[in-house]
Amino acid sequence: MRTLVTAILSVSALLLLTGCWDRLEIEERAVVLSIAIDAADPEVVEKESMVNSKNRKSEHSIPVPEGKTVRVTAQIAVPGRIPLGPGGSSGSGGSSGGGNPVWVLESYGYTIDEALQSMQQEVADRMFFGHLRVIVMSEEYARRGTGNLSDYLRRNPEVRRLAWLVVSKEEAAQYMRTAPQLERVPALYLLSTMDHAVQMGKYPMEPIGSFWIKMSSLGQEANLPYLELQEKNNVRLSGLAYFKGEKLVGVTQPLEVGLFMGLSGSEQGGYSSYVRIPDSEETAMFRVSNRRSKTRAYIKNGRPAVEVTVFLEGNLTEASDQGKGNLNTQEDLQKIGKDLSDRFSDRYVTFIRYMQKKESDIFGYGEYIRAHEPAYWNRHIRTKARWQSAFKDMDVKVNVTFDIRRVGQKAQ
Amino acid sequence: MKPEKVITVVQATSILVSTIVGVGVLPLPLFAVTAAESGAPFATVVAMSIASVGLVIVTMLGMRFPKLTFPELSERIIGKWLAAPMTLLIIAFFAVLTALAAREFGTVVVTSVLKNTPIEVTVFVMLLLAALSARADVRSFSYMHMFYLPVVLVPALIIAGLSLKNSNLLYLMPIFGNRRPDFFGGVFTIAALFQGYFIMTTVIPFMRRPKKAMIASVFGMGIAGGLYLLLVVAVVAVFGPMETKNLLWPTLELAKTTALPANVLERLDAAFLSVWVTAVFTTLLSSYFLTVRNMNELLRLKDHKPFTFFMLPFVFLIAMLPENVLNLYQVIEIVGRIGLILTLLYPGALLLIAALRGLRGEAA
Prior knowledge:
Distance between the termini of chain A: 95 Å
Mean pLDDT of chain A: 82
Helix content of chain B: over 70%
Helix content of chain A: 25-40%
Number of helices of chain A: 14
CATH superfamily of chain B: Amino acid/polyamine transporter I
Number of strands of chain B: 0
Order of helices and strands of chain B: HHHHHHHHHHHHHH
Largest sheet of chain B: none
CATH architecture of chain B: Up-down Bundle
CATH class of chain B: Mainly Alpha
Strand content of chain A: 25-35%
Number of domains of chain A: 2
Distance between the termini of chain B: 14 Å
Structural class of chain B: mainly alpha
Low-confidence stretches of chain B: none
Oligomer: heterodimer
CATH topology of chain B: Amino acid/polyamine transporter I
């Protein structure tokens, strides 16, 4: 008898353990590859939203967030049309060829979730965010504040922390529709834009997870890659969008991303700089190949101060009108290295000063103060808002050493 | 009843480790940063020391009466009429602890993986599994723990180790924390996560050489505490204290950001969850086993098997009581702190009285 009971129980355990409730066939999922967030026109939202104005007239109406309206555009992979492996449309597949590999949908709402809900109304299959790789938000939306978006994505367990969140200069929705030459799936093109930028040292590896970490930190402001759409549907990484709190406050020049990476010591170097060859009118181009930085934060005269030492290594990549300048001996290279060091330290300081004016501590110097000078931090700072104003008056010193290692495969 | 002597020191150690390491690894870093922000590892070490004191007391008590189980030795020390209600309280406490652990497990699974599965099912299945396995005798019980221990330890170490490449040492400084919002409250909550150490009371009477129980305790606490500390350090160093505060289950989030080298697996949360299910299972098994063994010894029966299924509906009902996830963690916090009285102060008092009265069990 007892064995029988045990047997029944074990079998029922086996059956229950399979998790049948959550069975979902792969072709019944609408795989969302990428989404775009734009600020929307309130009147359009009024019409399209699931919560319409009639509902909101009465006293017991559904409350909606005031003045916050969004348009969400999603790119959904169409099963069978995503080219697998090389070859593309030119042959082998036959029946699978042709047609757009992705389906672009848009919807409106007062919040991200509402917009996605109403999009779900139009899609038969359940939308699945496990493969969401790129989230584009327009500059306009980011300037209004990103709290809403972050909250929604944080709560959704399907979303990866390694997805990219980028800011676009134009309407973000355009990025969902562009069809670049190199890749048939627009989302994957955006993804490789970012991944390759990281590999080439053009942008630090900072996906959405790092964005959230910086945003939560008391002594640091967040930053995101800033993209711009060019003529032929190509995408340009053209700066660093910096935040103050949860709101975007400005965008840097493309080259300043390199300065930012130098100050934070991202190892892979990728930006170049001109320098005047000594004793001549000529210029040469040097590319940074490795970077390293050391930051020391301390209190000077009762005020936070920071001293950054940046170590750069680089190679000569191009000399204009070669032959007239002297680039042939080690001494020449050392002289140029010295010159570059001075110029760079100047540019670094200018860049930090500029960010100080914007009260956006994307370098995280506040974190250094918090970590190394807890007594000062506890007495004077403690909150993010107070660090923002303390950062403004911080004393900055930057030392740079630039070592030139190689000159390429050309003698003379 | 004469217990059979089957458990070796290594087995005792693995029972201790896999009992302590359980469902608590998920919210642990959150508890630690709410206690002391960047001082989270420090708070964990303090909590670990408190738990170690409890474990040492329990072990010394067990070694003093190497042949007696906990209900028996407490009767010997303070008499039947005082000891019986206390034993009953301990039984009730571990039943509640089992229930809460199962509920916490169910909540995590339903939130993050099986979103359409009713929570009753996940909780019930887990409890059923624990109940079925708790019918085993002490020997099989110890084998189960030893078998699953590497499955729990190795992947947890890999995830913590791999995640350290994204770490930022600034987040661990200052080591005592800038603010300590609720230091002792948080420390007690973390110490409560170690409460599984009470399983030593059940293990010692069955050890081949109870004299070596202390070695098992020291190693068990060292390994479990070390793992906890490592996870706290990894989470806080990667996310920073402020971001950790935003995460309900930071350790799960850590697994989500950690990729195997060369992108073999881009996120490890699925792997981590399957490991963690094992860890939860061994913990539930232990606390369930402890409950039914103590019941058995309180009533002086030969076999604990009849109780396993008798307890199941009660434990399940308790598990279903908390209203929502926030309420659940409130309850866990309160129950955990009450539990410290039962697992730390009560054995401490027993040991003191035994020493004062000069009581001692005969050697094994």
